[in-house]
Specification:
Blueprint: E1 9-10, E2 14-18, H1 24-33, H2 47-60, E3 63-67, E4 73-83, E5 88-96, H3 105-120, E6 125-131, H4 135-144, E7 147-157, E8 164-173, H5 177-189
Parallel strand pairs: 5-6
Antiparallel strand pairs: 1-2, 2-3, 3-4, 4-5, 6-8, 7-8
InterPro entries: Acyl_CoA_acyltransferase, GNAT_dom
Protein name: RimJ/RimL family protein N-acetyltransferase
Keywords: Transferase
């Protein structure tokens, strides 16, 4: 188990809460309403696919993203591949309900999780691995302040179409965190 999500992380608009079995149906309702939005995720398009995703998400210590105003589930994100000896983890497997895409939800979720990673877990690097065809996520990670490190060629097989695609690797390191944090706080305040 990852042990990165033992407590909820609360922001102004959203909260990150540990994933539990009670969240399954709400997640299914979201992803089945707009499957094309989740083509680069590991959620899949069937309940069987979602069961596989759910099992791994619980092992990884995933969070669900909750809207503070309505207390509804609007997405999920997680730190994974935690290596405490080196001080590294990846941040990803992030997805949101269609109405949350392009809003302040992602900046605030990233602020909460990066703050947890750098300030609570004392990590020195947080990585992001994104399908090279997923331009929306690549742009979002660059907008956070992450640096692109390279491309892993023919690195992952996509669930939705079986294509073996390239993976773009990005990171934020501890010395960049203060600037990234200020940028995210300003983005949230101006929304």
């Amino acid at each position: 188990m990852n042990h990165t999500n033992s407590t909820a992380l609360t922001g102004k608009y959203i909260s990150l809460q540990p994933l539990t079995d009670s969240h399954f149906e709400a997640i299914w309702q979201i992803i089945s309403s707009a499957p094309e939005l989740y083509q680069y995720t590991t959620l899949g398009q069937t309940k069987e696919d979602l069961n596989k995703w759910f099992a791994q998400a619980k092992i990884d210590g995933a969070f669900v993203v909750m809207d503070n105003a309505t207390q509804t589930l609007i997405g999920s994100t997680r730190l994974y591949n935690l290596n405490a000896n080196v001080g590294h983890a990846n941040l990803g497997y992030t997805w949101y309900a269609p109405e949350c895409v392009g809003t302040n939800v992602n900046p605030e979720a990233k602020l909460l999780l990066l703050q947890h990673a750098f300030e609570t877990l004392k990590l020195i690097r947080v990585g992001f691995e994104i399908d090279s065809d997923n331009m929306r996520s690549r742009k979002a990670v660059l907008k956070l302040g992450a640096q692109q490190e390279g491309i892993l060629r023919k690195h992952r097989k996509r669930i939705h179409d079986g294509v073996v695609s390239d993976t773009c690797v990005f990171s934020i390191i501890q010395s960049e965190w203060d600037e990234v944090k200020i940028n995210l706080q300003q983005r949230i305040q101006s929304s």
